[in-house]
Amino acid sequence: MGISSISYSSSTVYSKASSSNTSSSEIKQLEKQKAELESELQEAQQSKGDEQTKQQKIQQLQIEIQQIESEIQQKKSEKTDQSQNSIQQLKSVNNNTRTKNNNETSNKSNSADSANESTTGNKIDTWA
């Protein structure tokens, strides 16, 4: 019974780790998009041509970069929250398992003590 609860908790932690890896790859993808937009922004700032069109392009790129930065921060925050929740779950499972093992050990010890008392009591009765 204890093994099945450990297996369950391990699979839960594994699935959370898997989603954390997905989050990491999403963050990397967003950072890559941000770098590409920053490169485009530099090109737009250095370009020659209609100043109004140039400024519109720069402004649009800056807005997109800010949106991506916001998404990156959100993903990082979610990842941190998931990590903290996983740690709390592991601690809870560990404490529950430890308590259960202590209870089982205590019950076995009490049973053994009762058996010893019975046996000892019988010996005393036999000698008496």
UniProtKB/TrEMBL annotation:
Q: Which domain of life is it from?
A: Bacteria
Q: Where are the residues of the annotated region Disordered?
A: 1-59, 72-128
Q: Where is the composition biased (Basic and acidic residues)?
A: 28-37, 72-81
Family matches, as InterPro entries: FlxA
**Composition skew (Polar residues), residue ranges:** 112-128
| UniProt feature, compositional bias: Low complexity | 1-25, 91-111
An example Pfam family from this entry, by short name, is: FlxA
Q: What is this protein called?
A: FlxA-like protein
Give the source species: Clostridium magnum DSM 2767
